[in-house]
Amino acid sequence: MSENPVQQPESYQKREFFLLVIVIILFLGGVYFIYGQIKQMGDIGGGTQIHQPIPPKRITLIKPKPSHSAKSKQKYESLLNNVDQSLKKGAKWLKGQFIHLDSKKGGWPHFQWEEKKPGAPTTALATFSLASLPKRLQETYLGMLEKGIAFLLSKMDEKGAISEKEAHIQYRNYTTAMTLSSLCLLDKKRYREEIKKIQSYLIHSQLLSIPRWNWHYGTWNYYETPHLGLRVDISVTAYVLESLYLSGLPRSSSTWKKALIFLKRCQNYGPNKDKRVYDGGFRFHPRNSKAGEVTLPSGDILYLSYGSATSDGLRSLLYSGLSLDHERVKRARTWLVQHFSSTVNPGFGREDPAGFGRGMRFYYFHSVSKAMKK
Predict the structure, then answer these.
(1) Are 313 and 356 in contact (CB under 8 A)?
(2) Residue 97 in contact with residue 104, Cβ under 8 Å?
(3) Beta carbons of 312 and 330 less than 8 angstroms apart
(4) pLDDT value at residue 34
């Protein structure tokens, strides 16, 4: 890394901070529901090194029980209190960034715009963050949440898609999925018709018109913008599947089975493949990994696994109906346990020129807390 990094404009720094706060809130919301105690584990570096698998360590999900010692109970309550305080601080900051358009609508500033006005993608992310708060903490922000939802629904087209048409990149599927998740978390009965319409859009926007052998088959487009090409990844897939799961899409729907085709192509796994090489983790895309790639002696290219992708992949497998006993699920969970980190997004090693290890750590914390909650 350069010793004299380029100074970013103040507006850019504010946008980065805004996104960071939202991701922290989502992560802490996940921590509130689970307390993962992982013993005797350290960070695993190694860059492109392929690690010898080790027996999985057991993760114990701690819940307060009458039989717990006073010291253990005090420690648990102290943790929840710290999480509560962090959630309150983050939510208070988001409240300060909220822009009131009128008595019924409002939102959060779009991170691509210099002008301070609400944008659908950022509003969907902030709304999803606040909708994920425990109900007792959420009450303070219900009025603001309802205005945010009203703003997002005003951006919905006749098919059920929600996007910011003024923006260069609309982030349509991200925005639509997070809006759907927010509606489901807030009030399924009240927003029943909107949920049904948005769910229908996401089902029909799944990439199925391309040949089944195409690497993009079964997932959702990142862009959904006419002037941009097709791009897919494990992240947008996870957010869409999460929203469909929360909205109660029946297990009989073929959407799950077709999504699994894409998910399997993103996992470094094969029943007849060397486990020392194909470690059960996930990469960003069937033919791409932010953690890099290595050429094997056979000439095949291995796209390396990393933390946030494996977390997204694992929870997507579970949303799609695979059981905890399924071999793919077990291998992904084992990878996350063996590579667990409380400081970085694991899988990038010490040489990380793009800074994904540190730069994506809160995204990883958020996703892994959901993945290991199951």
Answers:
(1) no
(2) no
(3) no
(4) 40
- What residue ranges in 241-366 does DSSP mark as E strands? 293-295, 301-303
- Structure-token pair, residue 217: 């088959």
Among residues 328, 288, 312, the alpha carbon closest in space to that of 372 is found at 312
Task: Tell me the backbone φ, ψ of residue 229, rounded to 5 degrees.
Answer: -80, -175
Task: Specify whether the CB–CB gap between 105 and 120 falls below 8 A.
Answer: no
pLDDT digits (tens, 9 = 90+) for 157-207: 999 999 998 888 889 999 999 999 999 999 999 999 999 999 999 999 999
Extract the runs of DSSP E, i.e. beta strands, from 74-163.
99-100, 106-107
**CA-to-CA separations, 195 to 104, 127, 178, 254, in angstroms, rounded:** 20, 15, 12, 19
How many Å apart are CA 299 and CA 301, to the nearest integer?
7
Quote the distance between the C-alpha of residue 252 and its chain's center.
24
Q: Are 131 and 145 spatial neighbours (Cβ–Cβ below 8 Å)?
A: yes
Distances 196 to 80, 123, 153, 179, 182 between C-alpha atoms, Å: 35, 21, 13, 12, 14
The 3-state DSSP class for residue 25 equals: helix
Token duo for residue 250: 């029946």
Q: What is the per-residue DSSP string for 221-238?
A: -S---TTS-----HHHHH
Q: Residue 302, SS3?
A: strand
